[in-house]
Amino acid sequence: MRAHRVCVYCGSRSGSDEFVDAARAFANALADRGWDLVYGGGNVGLMGVVADTVMARGREVTGVIPHSLFDVEVAHRGITELLEVESMHERKAVMAARADAFVALPGGLGTLEELFEAVTWHQIGIHAKPCGILNAFGFYDSLLEFLHGSADAGFVSRGHLERIIVADEPGELLDALAERFAD
Ligand code: AMP
After folding, report:
1. Domains along the chain?
2. pTM for this model (two decimals)
């Protein structure tokens, strides 16, 4: 059986130092479990930190990047497999197809877009792969508060919201995801 592969969405910027530490800790926790990474293929920001850390631990890293972002996100040449695609849609489709689970680390608008695609597709049954958020240093507190407010207002199903796994600590997040991997 192949190793579990986690699709990670995270910043193409690094944010402050604590987020770099959190990204590294997450990548180490992934490698500790003998799992592999699929991500956007860039060598910038937290994306680069996660990829480098997983590679250094001897696990497989698959990057998926559109031609148009090769320079902007500095396509990572030092990973196990770098897949070049034509569009953002293809990128997300390839990443999703190869993943057993989705995780968002701290990031910007791109990260949020990817996270919401994963959770909304789960909600409407396009996939059944677990989705998690690493709420490192409370980065996602305000987003989570907004989502719970949206549930209170009747726009978001509480059941769907509760299916998103949220943890502050990487090991806790990955163990919770593992309980929901498809057999
Ligand atoms: P950011 O969180 O904005 O730093 O972006 C993180 C990653 O998300 C980068 O690899 C971006 O290329 C990617 N990204 C940005 N916008 C989108 C989008 N609309 N769909 C998918 N990925 C995106």
Report:
1. 5-175 (3.40.50.450)
2. 0.96
